[in-house]
Amino acid sequence: MAPRRAGRSRQVCLCLLMAGLASIYCGMHVYPQARSGSGKHQMRVFVTLSTMFLMCLLRTAYKLPGTVPQSFKAGESRGELPVHTREAKKTGDVRKCKWCGTLKPDRCHHCRACGACILKMDHHCPWIRSCVGFYNYKYFLQVLLYATTLCIFMSWTMGKSTMRLMSGSAPLWLKAVMCFGEVLLILLSIALALFASFHLRCVYHGQTTLEFCEKLRRSTRPWNPDMYNLGPWQNFKAVFGPNPLLWLIPFGRPEGDGLSFPGCVHEEHASQAAKVDGGISSKVGLLSPVRRRPPANKDVLCSDQM
């Protein structure tokens, strides 16, 4: 019950923060200059960005990230998966979740907060009390982009009003509230911009947050961090969908089914070389599935305890 109460408190704080900043911006900045052309223009932009942000946030929170289907659970007794996988244990067996006992496809990890194995799990987000995975990662990125743009727009346009109010004869409490809102918007703009840049960097390289963390931990171990890197254009299409016109709209779905993923071109060449050379692909500098050396009884990409 404690984690649930903590999740609700975070959501309440998020709602209060958004409502407070919107009230300061509209009441102390837009409303005094509502009759001017710039005030009307800024209000239109604010309403548009806020609407898109809320739509993406709702889609992220209520869109299921994707879980392991029943066909994988049915194949548990046979010890085989209905799709081809690149990730395996040291013994060569398919990955099996030690928490729920199901066989796991590539890039799938168990979330103990949600109690399920999530397809292409990126991370568990406490602000929405759900996981970010294959089916809602696009909407999560859109939340970051619209939130960053909205905070930068609000802090930039409200800066002149804040300076004018601070140099005038307004009441002290009004100056304090206005200054607090401006400073908070600047800090949020910086934090969200860094967070969005990190996730866009992961998309650019075809990685999830868990795979990025595993890359740092396995920097001295034989593991290919670019296993699913298809190139920047294909990586963005795999997340946002095949139609670039829908990349900033909270509709559509990513490419694929979340169960199997195409490998990078170098890995395909390595697999062909492995067949010719008897499972040894040292010529291209990558590892074939037969020669992986992960720790005993651990998954190749990431531990399920994350």
Automatic annotation (TrEMBL):
- Keywords in alphabetical order, please: Acyltransferase, Membrane, Transferase, Transmembrane, Transmembrane helix
Principal location listed in the UniProt entry: membrane
Describe the reaction catalysed, as an equation. Answer: L-cysteinyl-[protein] + hexadecanoyl-CoA = S-hexadecanoyl-L-cysteinyl-[protein] + CoA
- Its Enzyme Commission number(s) read 2.3.1.225
Establish whether keyword 4Fe-4S is in the entry. Answer: no
Where are the membrane-spanning stretches? 12-31, 43-62, 139-158, 170-195
Stated membrane topology is: Multi-pass membrane protein
Q: What is one GO cellular-component annotation here? A: membrane
Q: What class of enzyme is it?
A: transferase
Q: Which domain of life is it from?
A: Eukaryota
Q: What InterPro entries does this protein's entry cite?
A: Palmitoyltrfase_DHHC, PFA4/ZDH16/20/ERF2-like
Q: Which residues form the Palmitoyltransferase DHHC domain?
A: 94-215
What Gene Ontology terms describe what this protein does at the molecular function level?
Answer: protein-cysteine S-palmitoyltransferase activity
Q: Which residues form a coiled coil?
A: none
**Where does the record say this protein resides?**
Membrane
What family, per the record? Belongs to the DHHC palmitoyltransferase family.
Domain description = The DHHC domain is required for palmitoyltransferase activity.
Q: What is this protein called?
A: Palmitoyltransferase
Protein's organism: Symbiodinium natans
Q: Quote the gene name from the UniProt entry.
A: Zdhhc15
